[in-house]
Every structure is written in structure tokens, then in C-alpha cells.
Write a structure and sequence with these properties.
alpha/beta, about 325 residues, globular, about 20% strand, 8-stranded mixed sheet, 3-stranded antiparallel sheet, Rossmann fold
């Protein structure tokens, strides 16, 4: 059994729960909790990744608004949207950003665009990955009903069998690997150091980040961030990248299952930083909240700086652009 299979085996039930928590990607005090369908917004600069259409997909992509934020569903074609820093600020570091949503929706604003803009403001080239999703009913009522029905029945075999579980994320891992390949291919144009490309994911996006790191052999992220994702233990290879983890103690999904991922990284002798916030819930992302969990982003960029990722290398494209 591979490390990725073990990881997905431990996290399989959590994925089911995460699918319901597209509504949790919001501040606890939010009142705008009604889902409202919206037209697919303009996404200037989005680049199709060439991984093809989701096999067997029949429901087209759709979007909705909730909690003052926007979400996508039924994504069948993966894209990558660059958010590039001012050349005068560019550090040469880059981050692929993977929003969450249980592989059934994507929190594109709170865990995607807003994160990418904040990174670009710090001089980090950011790329929002809109990866392909499991299909759900086209209408929002049907979507909510399908989630309730999924929880009402037994856990499907493919979610508890390790090899079957890894197979269910094949399209998403392929999208992430294609994202790394594209950023490296255009590294000179985007003033990115090919050796300083990392990935940060939220909830299901965090699961994809871990899976891409240890299953996608050609991705090889230089550093990774797991923001309120699963903390299941797994086998960590000797060359695993530095890992940053942030989660709130009152996270209803993943905070109560121990800190196996942290201990696994430590056991392997690999760098890991762990922030366990007293409050924040699940899905805090970039929402302003009166909790210390909002400090995760500053902590993440300071951690990047500690690892020497925030200063342009002499002679690099980023240094030349300054």
C-alpha cells in the first residue's frame, strides 16, 4: 500500500463530511446563507490545463453565491489562473492554490482568488487551480438533496478501499500535476524560480496537496501548506518537502482525530510547522473573523521567509525584474 493510499484510506470518511461543508467556508456570524445561482463569472487569464474533460460528465459547470462569496460546481475542465506580483516585489517564489469543497464544489473566492491576491501582494506568484470535480445535480436544491442522501446511506466501498480511493482522485491529481508543469514551462515569463514552486490547499484542497506531493512524482512541490485538511498519519518519504499546517481546535471535521500527520512528518525528519488555533471553525480561509485563526496567512508567509523563499536569488528572473 502506497503512502497516498494510506492517506486517502484514513481520510475517506472525512471527504464525505467535507462535501457537506461548502456552507462552512464562511464566517460563523454570516447571515447571507442562502445559495443563489449566478452566471459563470469572467475569469480573465484562466488557462486550460489540457487534462481533458471529466470522463463521463454530463452536467455543465455552474456557480452560486453564498456568504458574500462565490463557489463553483461541476467543473469538468481544469484551469489555472495566474495572479502575478508587481515585478518590483517579485520574490521568485510561486504557490499553486487549491480551494476546498469536498471535491463537489470549490470555494473559489475565499480559498482561491483572495488567497492568490494576498500572496501576489507579498511578492509571490500565485496560481489558482480550478480542478475537476465529482458531478452533482445541476440545480442547487438537487445538490443539497444529493449530499443529504449520501450521508443517509452506507459508506460506498470505493471510499474505504485504499486502492479504489486513490483512483477516485485521478483527475484531480492529474490537474495538479499539469499545473506544476505549466508553471515550470512558463517560469521565465512569469519570473518564477522553478525550484521554489509550492502548493497550499484548503480542506479537500489540502488533501489534494498532500496526494499530489507524494503521488505525483513529477510535481515535486518545494513546500506545501495544509490548511484545515485531514491530519491522518501516513508514510512520509525521506525527501518530503517542508510542511505548514493550520487548523482550529473547534474544527468539526479534522481537529478531533489527533495529529498523526504532524508526527509522521517529524518521524521522517522533515520540517513541519503546526498552528493549532483555539477557535476558527472549518473553512475560515481569508474571511475576517474575530479569532486568531485569521493570522494563518501572515504565519504562512513568515514561514516561507524563514525557509529562504521570499528573497530573489541573485541572477534569477525575479531579481532581474526588480
Amino acid at each position: 500500500m502506497t503512502w497516498a493510499s494510506r492517506f486517502l484510506h484514513h481520510a475517506s470518511r472525512a471527504v464525505l463530511a467535507t462535501a457537506l461543508l461548502w456552507i462552512a467556508c464562511a464566517p460563523a456570524s454570516a447571515q447571507d446563507d442562502a445559495m443563489t445561482p449566478i452566471s459563470i463569472p469572467a475569469q480573465p487569464g484562466a488557462i486550460e490545463l489540457g487534462t481533458g474533460s471529466l470522463p463521463g460528465a454530463t452536467v455543465p459547470e455552474s456557480w452560486h453565491r453564498q456568504y458574500g462569496s462565490v463557489f463553483s460546481r461541476n467543473v469538468t475542465v481544469a484551469t489555472l489562473t495566474p495572479f502575478l506580483p508587481d515585478p518590483a516585489k517579485a520574490t521568485g517564489a510561486a504557490v499553486i492554490v487549491a480551494p476546498g469543497g469536498g471535491f463537489r464544489s470549490l470555494s473559489m473566492q475565499n480559498e482561491g482568488w483572495d488567497v492568490a491576491r494576498a500572496l501576489a501582494d507579498r511578492g509571490v506568484a500565485a496560481f489558482v487551480l480550478k480542478y475537476r470535480l465529482h458531478q452533482t445535480p445541476a440545480d442547487l436544491d438537487g445538490f443539497a438533496r444529493s449530499i443529504r442522501e449520501m450521508f443517509a446511506g452506507p459508506v460506498p466501498t470505493h471510499r474505504v478501499d485504499p486502492m479504489s480511493s486513490i483512483a477516485t482522485l485521478g483527475p484531480q491529481i492529474a490537474d495538479a500535476r499539469a499545473a506544476f508543469a505549466l508553471v515550470r514551462e512558463r517560469a521565465g515569463e512569469w519570473h518564477v524560480d522553478p525550484d521554489r514552486i509550492g502548493m497550499v490547499g484548503f480542506s479537500a484542497g489540502a488533501m489534494l496537496t498532500i496526494a499530489t506531493t507524494l503521488a505525483g512524482e513529477d510535481a515535486k512541490p518545494a513546500f506545501i501548506g495544509d490548511i484545515y485538511g485531514p491530519l491522518a498519519p501516513l508514510d512520509v518519504p525521506a525527501d518530503a518537502p517542508p510542511l505548514f499546517i493550520a487548523i482550529a481546535a473547534d474544527d468539526g471535521l479534522f481537529a478531533g482525530s489527533g495529529f498523526g500527520l504532524v508526527e509522521s512528518w517529524r518521524k521522517a525528519g522533515r520540517p513541519v510547522e503546526f498552528h493549532f488555533y483555539e477557535r476558527g471553525g472549518h473553512g475560515f480561509g481569508m474571511y475576517p473573523k474575530p479569532t486568531t485563526s485569521t493570522g494563518w496567512f501572515d504565519a504562512f508567509t513568515r514561514w516561507m521567509a524563514m525557509h529562504g523563499l521570499m528573497a530573489p536569488k541573485p541572477g534569477s528572473a525575479a531579481a532581474a525584474a526588480r
